[in-house]
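Case study.
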Amino acid sequence: MRNIFLIARREYLERVRSKSFLIMTFLIPFLMAAVTLGPGALTVMLSKPSAKHFVVVTSRAAVGEAIRDQLSKSQTEQSKNATAAKKNSLMRSEPVPPSTAVTDIDTNTSEKERAALTAKVSKKEIDGVIWATDDAIARNKLDYITRDVSSFIQTSILQEGISEALHREALKAKGLNQQEVDSIFEHVTLEAIDPVMGGPGAPDPQVRVIASFVMVMILYMSLLLYGINVMRSVLEEKTSRIMEVMLSVAQPKEMMAGKILGVGAVGLTQFAIWITATSIIMGAQLFAVRVQLKGILTPGLLVSFAVFFLLGYTLYSTLYAAIGAMVNSEQEAQQTQFLVLMPIIAAIAMAFPVLTNSDTPIAFWGSMIPFTAPIVMFIRMAMKPPPAWQLALSVALMLATIYGLVLLCGRIYRVGILMYGKKPTLPEILKWLKYS
Amino acid sequence: MNIIELNRVRKTYDHFVAVDDLSFSIPEGSVFGLLGPNGAGKTSSIRMMMGITIPDSGTIQVFGRPFERKALHRTGYLPEERGLYKKMKVLELLIFFGELHGLTAADSRQRAVTWAERLEIGDWLPKKVEELSKGMQQKIQFIATLLHDPEFVIMDEPFSGLDPVNATLLKDVMLDLKKQGRTILFSTHRMDQVEKLCDAICLINHGKAVLNGNLKEIKSRYGKNNIQIQYEGDGAFLQQNALVGTYNNYGNYVEVRLAPGADSQQLLRMVTERSRVNKFEVVEPSLEEIFIEVVGKANA
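After joint prediction, the assembly is written out as follows.
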């Protein structure tokens, strides 16, 4: 035990004192923020006010006017939404200036006019032509001539607007007045109420997804990073022959345990720094974040984050330690580590479906299979705590797997660290398991 | 008492026999040379003495009893290649090794400082290992081996990478250890060092002992029939000569072994007839010669 402690302490101090620890401690949250919030913020930032110029071709001027009114209204709504999206992206910002849409009405529905307008679109004189002739409306299918065919969001906004305009026009034709039509088109909002978590006043589900996603990404990166750290450091000791000296005082299992504990403690230290920093930020009301994260970043969730990190880290770092002991160089290590990478990647691939719905079979099985459980079970804990028996079973399965892996990888480690030369084949590794 | 006793030890890896029926013992207080060409099984034997691997058959006694882990606290191991944590500060590293060997941190620190001063490397204790030259690192490794004051010291090529001044420094430490009654196992290819330092040797080849015992006895077994000759003139006649068994030209002098039954005086007369002789001396065979002969014969 003393040896394990000494080895773990050495490993811990060497890492915590290194520059890379300092850099990673600051860089990872920054990267996480950039990855999760960046794309959204970027789209909002890049959505500059733009003036679009459309031409509606229709034989009835009333239809054209209805479409024009509706389009300018939906442009205003769109910019409102963009501002709302910015708020949700946990950033304070200025509202986006509304885009404007200029809509001309053209009552000439001849094929010749269509050709002329199409030419104007390709010459970039106008942005789009909406072909709303009577028979097209009757077929419920309008042609939209644009250079920007791939911009499906733009198209669907137009589509919504035009549909609404046509419906309004049809209702007016039936004799309803403006007020009556408006009340028909009043939007209805749905408020989701979970039987366990409650309804209004509960944390914004969207913020919950984003916050959970950030934590899952941190978990994923930490598992990967610290696992690879263990592998590297075993390999380094092997190639630098420190192993020989260490073996003259300590047993291989003590060395492996010490290393895994030491590196794991570094990970926990890093989380402790992050959590402290977060609570200071939240306590100091520095950001609008504070209100939105209330009820999401609970102490319970932070504890389960640490627990699932420890479980996942122990599981994966044991495998990584065995790989480090098996191979002789970084290149060989790179080639071999995909075996360990695959389950982690599988887990992160499950993350998205589970984040959106944590009551599916994927969520259940993902949180039971020990190799994906650290990530998938954590997501479930963050989104909607599973029944206690599932949590207990998942943790028990992980612990059992860790126990088995420690025995197995301990044997590979013990033989591997003394083997130099070529990369071992699978049958050779199986033979190692039998060595005394 | 014997510090180490190997009795018919065998170790195989798959189909490769690393150590084959090896027996030798190291008496307390002696300097023992474990010799052999590369891949002869020296490292495999040392690993079994330290309990890193377990023999397939045969027994190993350490300090008079079957191997126990606590015996390691009485043993120091200096590996052939330097095994130090490069990012650590020298003093911290030495304290770490001392603690692993059961010392307290304070005790380790004090011993490390004393040793570093003795080996003239005290100024480097606060530096990182990676800043040190190879020779200095070797000295640090040396200190790490001896910090816990082991009774039995295993040294694998301790002088490699050292200049003559530092090599002498370490040799003096080794002689000191010997004076204090420590037992040293010395594994090397450098036969001149073995001749200077060792009391007994075991020469192994292909995992088997081919020569084993007291160094003086072994040399006398090969008899005093080697002759070193220094001469002026053409010595080519010595190579094809009925009186000469083996011939080695070292540049400054020639060493020959007499053919069986040949008389040294007869050779002296022949040499004086053909060249001007500056030196003609009957000597014991050098260990190197014995090594080459024994190993060469076995590998032929």
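Observations recorded in class. The interface with chain B takes residues 3, 6-7, 10, 14, 18, 240-251, 418, 431, 436 of chain A (CB under 8 Å). Chain A has 18 helices and four strands. We will return to this complex in the next lecture.
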